[in-house]
Amino acid sequence: MIVKKLSDVIGTDREVSTPHWTSRRLLLRDEGMGFSLHDTLIRAGTSTEMEYRHHLEAVYCIEGTGHVKDLATGEVHPLVPGTVYALDRHDRHVLTAVTELRMVCVFTPPVVGTEVHDETGAYPSTTGPETRPEGRG
Ligand code: 9YT
Fold first, then answer.
1. How far is CA 89 from CA 15, 64, 86, 99, 135, in A?
2. For ligand 1, atom 9: residue with the closest CA
3. How far apart are CA 53 and CA 66, in angstroms?
4. Is residue 128 part of a domain?
5. Residue 55 three-state SS
6. Smallest Cα–Cα separation from 89: which of 68, 70, 76, 63?
7. Could you say which of 24, 42, 82, 85 is the most buried, measured as most Cβ atoms within 10 Å of its Cβ?
8. Which residues contact ligand 1 via a Cβ below 6 A?
9. Ligand 1 pocket: which of 6, 18, 35, 40 to mutate (most atoms <8 Å of CB)?
């Protein structure tokens, strides 16, 4: 059994920050669960366009308010604590934090650890030939 706390991750290389968010990566590929689990803070006032073409992601809002826009349909979904969205079609979307959002994020396949967004808003594939986690965040 793996047991750890958020405080075990903060201040380590499992805490990954960009100008828009800080992702505390509790479970990664190396833990062997088949998914990764992140406790992520999205900074108030930011909007981030993303498209995880190599991953599926579920995002559960536990603190804060904001909205997520589905760029395929134009629909805007409000986010309040207790709301989950799941990018089951690798959906291109814009996440906006009105106040700081705290989100529990699950990725499959799991992220390796240091990924930030590339210029398309994706994390690199860890199952194909393109395996180096790098990008602009
Ligand atoms: C909700 C979201 O996608 N935020 C960007 C950061 C990412 N989910 C992560 O690695 O925690």
1. 27, 25, 9, 27, 22
2. 23
3. 23
4. no
5. coil
6. 70
7. 42
8. 21, 23, 38, 40, 50, 59, 95, 103, 105
9. 40
Residue 126 counted as domain residue: no
For atom 10 of ligand 1, the residue with the nearest CA is: 23
pLDDT at 82 over 80: yes
pTM of the model: 0.88
- Look at residue 76 and tell me if it is in a domain: yes
pLDDT tens digits along 107-136: 999 999 877 788 888 888 877 544 444 444
**10, part of any domain:** no
Q: How many domains, the chain?
A: 1
Show the domain range for 34: 28-108
CATH of the domain at 36: 2.60.120.10
Which residue puts its alpha carbon closest to atom 8 of ligand 1? 105
Eight-class DSSP state of 51: -
Q: Which two tokens stand for residue 78?
A: 């409000």
CB 42 within 8 A of CB 20: yes
